[in-house]
Design goal:
Elements lengths: L5 H16 L3
C-alpha cells in the first residue's frame, strides 16, 4: 500500500467500514 495521504485515508476508512459491516 502506498502512503499518499488522502488515498491511504480513504482506503483505511473503507477497510473500517467493511470490518464493521462484516461484524469485525
Amino acid at each position: 500500500m502506498r502512503g499518499e495521504g488522502e488515498e491511504c485515508t480513504m482506503v483505511n476508512k473503507l477497510l473500517v467500514n467493511v470490518k464493521i459491516l462484516f461484524g469485525g
